[in-house]
Amino acid sequence: xxxxxxxxxxxxxxxxxxxxxxxxxxxxxxxxxxxxxxxxxxxxxxxxxxxxxxxxxxxxxxxxxxxxxxxxxxx
Length: 75
Hints:
Radius of gyration: 13 Å
Order of helices and strands: HHHH
Number of strands: 0
């Protein structure tokens, strides 16, 4: 999935959380992040803390790749 803004990033996180049948409250308890942080991240808050967002991705079993436009990510 190509992520072009914080809203798309949040949408991807929300979709994965729902795929795993996790509530925001469960994820909050598991990670120690507040429900409000998770909610704001899923809604695409552009100022969400990046380090926490990366930790949340790992918890959800997701990877983030950065690549030059027009090139495929090397795995």
